[in-house]
Structure formats: structure tokens, C-alpha cells
Amino acid sequence: MGYVPDGPYVLNSGDHANESLELLALNDLGFLEQQLGIRRKKDKGKKEVSEITKHLEWELEILKNVKPTAICPICESRTVRYFMIQTIGEYTRTDENHMCCLGCRDKLLEKAQFENPTLIPLAFPAMKRFYRYNYKKRRLIPGPTIKKIKKIFKKAFGIEKVNRKTMFEWLKKESRPITLSRFSIDLEGIQQVIRY
């Protein structure tokens, strides 16, 4: 990635005035994607791409590719890849302990207390499913479980404190090129046969 911004980008107007693009990663990812599409149309034909377009592209690329860093609470050896949601009627249950790695999916599903538990990948684009469309405001608003989901994502991705500066620093850290000290291979589910 060539472009790395100097600091958080704060919006000046609109529904998210005085909010930074970095905080919207947890609060309204769909808005960021929508804005990127709008900004690309506005920048079409111009010699230089606007700063907000560059910032949105930078942030969304990171959010699309970032992997969780938390260790699976079941096997305590591999990184988490999923979290579980349990629903019965209008009641939804989930918490930070309902995460697992690829190999522990069945064990986590066995712990479910309600029928039809759902495993959801720990990826930022998956957060959009927990927002519902508000027809008056003509945009997505948080669903009832979004606070719990945010806690899960913060724990899974190693985000300790959520404010403009810390979210920007976390994104900047995740945008660094992979070095040997940051590189790890998850060989889970891959079998390799070597014949001599």
C-alpha cells in the first residue's frame, strides 16, 4: 500500500459530522462503502483523486483483509475465525466467549443453549448484517446486538480502546507491509503430502 494518511479524517457535514472515518469502521461500515462509491464518481475525470477518496480506499482495503489476532478460547492455540450468535424469537445472545478457530467450530456449536446457532466469520464486512434499514433516515442503523458484536470484534482484532486516535493507529499498524516478525501461517485445514 503506497498511501498512508497522516491522521484521522474527520467529516465536516452530514449525518456523521464530527465523526472520524476510522470510528465508522465499527459504527457504520456500510456508510464508508457508500461514500467511497460517491467519492469515486465525483473524482472521475479529475487529474487528482481527493484526499477523502484516498483515505476511504486505504481504510476499506485494510478492513477487508485484516485477520483476527485473538486466541481461540476452546483450544487455546489457534487464532479465532468465527463467533456464534444464538437467536430465539426476538432475543439474541452472544458474547466474547462465543468465538472459535476453524478446528473448534463443532465444539462451540455444542455449547449452544438455543436451537439453530449461527457461526459468522470474524471479518469487518460481516458487521453490516447487524444493522437494519431505517426508512425515515434512509440509512442503516445499529440493531439490538451491535454493542455486543463490537465488543467481540474489539477483542478478536486486538483493539483495546476506541477513539479517533487509537483506531487510526490500529489501522496504520495493520497497513504495514508484512515482515517476518508479523508473518504467521495458519496451516489449519491444509494437508500437504511430500513424496521423495
Question: How would you explain this protein's 3D organization?
Answer:
The chain has 196 residues and is α+β, with helices and mostly antiparallel strands. The protein has a domain of 78 residues. 33% of the residues lie in helices and 12% in strands. The protein is built from six helices and six strands. Strands 1, 2, 3 and 4 form a four-stranded antiparallel β-sheet that branches. The longest helix is centred in the N-terminal third of the chain and has 15 residues. The chain is elongated, with a radius of gyration of 19 Å. The termini are far apart.
Q: Concise description?
A:
By secondary structure, the protein is an alpha+beta fold.
Measured as a percent range, the helix fraction is 25-40%
Mean pLDDT comes to 82
Spell the H/E element sequence.
Answer: HHHEEEHEEEHH
User: By helix and strand content, what is the structural category?
Assistant: alpha+beta
Count of helical stretches: 6
Give the terminus-to-terminus CA distance: 40 Å
Parts with pLDDT < 50 across at least 5 consecutive residues: 178-196
What amount of the residues lies in strands?
5-15%
State the major sheet: 4 strands, antiparallel
Shape: elongated
Radius of gyration: 19 Å
Number of strands: 6
Keywords, please?
196 residues, alpha+beta, 6 helices, 33% helix, elongated, disordered C terminus
How does the SSE layout of this entry go?
Blueprint: H1 24-27, H2 29-43, H3 51-65, E1 82-88, E2 91-93, E3 99-100, H4 105-110, E4 118-121, E5 131-134, E6 139-142, H5 146-157, H6 164-175
Antiparallel strand pairs: 1-2, 1-3, 1-4, 5-6
Helix pairs in contact: 2-3
